[in-house]
Amino acid sequence: MEKRGVAVGSLLTVANLSVEEVAAILAATDRLERMAAAERVRILAGRRIALLFYESSTRTRTSFELAAKSLGAMTTLVSDKSSSIEKGESLKDTGLTLRALGAECIVLRHANSGAPYLLAKSTGLPVLNAGDGMHEHPSQALLDLRTMLTRLPGMSGRLVNAKTLDGVTVVITGDILHSRVARSNAMLLPKLGARVVLCGPKELLPEDALGLGLASKGGVEIERDFDKALKQAASQGLAVAMMLRIQRERLAGLELDLGDYISRYQLDQERLAARAPEALVMHPGPMIRGLEIAGEVADGANSAIEDQVRHGLAVRTALLVRALGVGGFESVTV
Amino acid sequence: MSDLLILNGRLVDPASGVDGERDLLLRHGRVAAVEMPGQLRAVKGKEVIDAKGMIVAPGLVDVHVHLREPGQTYKESIKTGTAAAAAGGFTSVVAMPNTVPVNDSVAKLEWMMDAEREACVKLFAMPAATFGSLGEEITDYHELQRAGAVGFTDDGKPVLHDRVMRAALVAAAGIGVPISQHAEDTRLTGGCSMNAGPVAFRLGLRGMTVEAESKIVERDIRLLRDIEKQEGLRPHLHVQHVSTANAMEAIRQAKRSGLHVTCEVAPHHFTLTDEAVGDYDTNAKMNPPLRNDADRLAMIAGLMDGTVDCIATDHAPHALFEKEQEFERAPNGITGLETALGLALQVLHKGNGMPISRVIELMSVQPARIVSLQGRGTLSVDSFADVVVFEPSAEWSFEAAKSRSKSRNTPFDGAPMLGRVLTTISEGRVIYRG
């Protein structure tokens, strides 16, 4: 394999993001959000960003595209369904082709874990991981973090450091095994002081998940009883209930009794009111109402689900600026 | 063929119990004399190798290589694969049958063994245990053995069905050759690309459990016991590339109970763990996968206590474009012929105190015995003049770019090695000079 490194400005994983880098990304997000549209559109004027999507996506793709356009960049969308990928072109060659056409940054969504590393190493371009297989979804974890910082009481104006989320327990519930969102959140949030409790049945949450915790201070626990997890989170400070969809497309023959699953793990109004009435309710989408989450909870006062989508647009704007090395990120090195 | 004298070296020949200064005369492709220093004189016309400070050992034997010919010569050929073997000190290799087409007939076996393939070391082959390695119907063991087969295997895949594996063991027992099993319950490993555990979880890759290996080993051992009891035969099971503590323990117990089980361990399984996958390095992807450190240490323990019969490389070359793919899509396997001795000496001898003679035993006479190679794996008088001369104290780094193999897929590019091969001799011919 070509021994090329990963370009500065890439975001492939949250694992090696320092708290300072997280703070810089969030600060840039604030700055860009406040900026007048006419000014923002000049930041990446004329720059070329390729959106390479091997898997379907609504939120992530649209928000990266809108983010790029709001910065004045040109975008091109390449999907596996309508390109030479269908003819068998490899990821490496697809990346080299995009680079030859002038792409300066590639946003990649791919069904195989680790694909962004291959693309980054073979093109030398900054690559933003927009979700790779069961591995990671770094921009999702950053937007989730920003959602928490804006919605949790007492957070606004707090400095972003290793203690920002002290006293916050994030209960991530559902199909952890197949979830890149769970992995990115479980690796990012403890860096800022949060306690992450993973919750779900053994088939969807193996003990190996504990390895996501920080080498220094852990920060990741498993609690299979959802009621207990919620109750405990609420009793220890601020609680976040992050619900995940069961990824039928990745179950690979795994049989699940959905009726049993719903009774044990669905976040419905009764459970929320009884166990953690103040909890912030989050879901990365797409959500299946009536399965992992009841409709009235998704639409209820505790829900931050639409905020998450909005923050997605803002955070991705900052990530694109960072990837292309402009707008106050010059001093931030990876 | 002219005479060849190897003088002043330390001869280590575990099969004949020799470990000391000896001079060696090779003549007509055989070992003609082994004498104390000073007895054999260099005379005009004789080629002389001065082996002062070197170890002179039987040429190494690898019972598990993939030479990719016929069918995939863009990865490797018999010529290039055996050249890599020679550079690694090997003089006998056993080719696996998962070529294209699968080596499952006398005609295909004879084609592989033909001199036109230009093997530079002695080539042996294990044809497929079942037609097409499909695991359904066993091949013609009698005919294939007559044509040179030294055992049978569906390597790359297991012989999964109890009935078929039993038939294979019975048929092979009748002619005194082993069934070499790739122990993987493929019903448990679909979609998996590395070892199950925290590393796989973090990387979002589906993991192969240790049970997927040990269950097949345990099943095969049960079959051996049944066949001994019911048929009065003594079948020989050879377990390929053991990688888990569970399987190692099952083999240890089976050996204690007197069953004819042998096994091999690959250098990567006693050197690396699944952490080596790092950022999806496809050169750390093979099957069985790199395991955790407890398993790695269990491989070393098995090598130290004699449970493991031999070191085998599972040399599995793949082209760069095949490895430059998404981790889950990249093929399994790494090259190994040129790094086996250097890693064995580095990890087992230097790192774990295994005597050099024992390392040599695990790489020469013991593998030769598993597949009943007559006159190989030893340097006693009259045996084949298969010799490796290496400098045991040489510390060096492997450079994949200089490999004799057609492929470069190794996790050991730049890795420290101990012991450097200077000369490899196959049946009296010098086939490699370092």
Structure in a nutshell:
The complex is a heterodimer of chains A (334) and B (434). Mean pLDDT of chain A is 93; it is low at 330-334.
Nearest-angstrom radius of gyration of chain B?
A: 21 Å
* Number of strand elements of chain B: 18
Number of helices of chain A: 12
Sketch the topology of chain A as an H/E string, one letter per element: HHEHEHEHEHEHEEHEHHEHH
Low-confidence stretches of chain A: 330-334
Rg estimate of chain A, integer Å: 19 Å
Secondary-structure blueprint of this entry?
The complex is a heterodimer of chains A (334) and B (434).
Chain A (H helix, E strand, L loop, with lengths): L18 H16 L2 H4 L7 E6 L5 H12 L3 E6 L11 H10 L4 E6 L4 H9 L3 E6 L5 H14 L16 E6 L6 H9 L6 E5 L20 E3 L3 H10 L2 E6 L14 H8 L3 H7 L4 E3 L12 H4 L6 H19 L11
Parallel strand pairs in A: 1-2, 1-3, 3-4, 5-6, 5-8, 6-7, 8-9
Helix pairs in contact in A: 1-12, 3-12, 4-5, 6-7, 6-12, 8-10
Chain B lengths: L3 E10 L4 E10 L2 E6 L11 E4 L4 E4 L1 E6 L12 H10 L2 E6 L10 H8 L8 E4 L15 H6 L5 E2 L8 H14 L3 E3 L12 E2 L2 H6 L3 E2 L1 H22 L5 E3 L5 H12 L4 E5 L1 H5 L21 H13 L4 E2 L8 H4 L16 H13 L3 H8 L1 H6 L16 E11 L18 E11 L2 E5 L1
Parallel strand pairs in B: 1-4, 1-5, 6-7, 7-8, 9-10, 10-13, 11-12, 13-14, 14-15
Antiparallel strand pairs in B: 1-2, 2-3, 5-16, 16-17, 17-18
Helix pairs in contact in B: 4-6, 6-7, 7-9
Task: Identify the notable features of this structure and list them briefly.
heterodimer; A: 334 residues; alpha/beta; Rossmann fold; 2 domains; 5-stranded parallel β-sheet; 4-stranded parallel β-sheet; 12 helices; disordered C terminus; B: 434 residues; TIM Barrel; 8-stranded mixed β-sheet; 13 helices
Report on the architecture of this protein.
The complex is a heterodimer of chains A (334) and B (434). Chain A is an alpha/beta fold and 334 residues long. Chain A has 12 helices and 9 strands. Chain A has a 5-stranded parallel beta sheet with strand order 7-6-5-8-9, with helices on both faces. Chain A has a 4-stranded parallel beta sheet with strand order 2-1-3-4, with helices on both faces. Chain A has 2 domains: 130 residues, 3-Layer(aba) Sandwich (Rossmann fold); 173 residues, Aspartate/ornithine carbamoyltransferase (Rossmann fold), CATH 3.40.50.1370. In chain A, helix 3 links the parallel strand 1 and strand 2. Chain A is 37% helix and 14% strand. The C terminus of chain A is likely disordered. With 434 residues, chain B is of the alpha/beta class. Chain B has a single domain, classed as Metal-dependent hydrolases (TIM Barrel), CATH 3.20.20.140. Chain B contains 13 helices and 18 strands. In chain B, helix 6 runs parallel beside helix 7. The two termini of chain B are 22 Å apart. The mean pLDDT of chain B is 97. The chains are: A alpha/beta (334), B alpha/beta (434). Chains A and B meet through helix 5 and helix 7 of A and helix 5 and helix 10 of B.
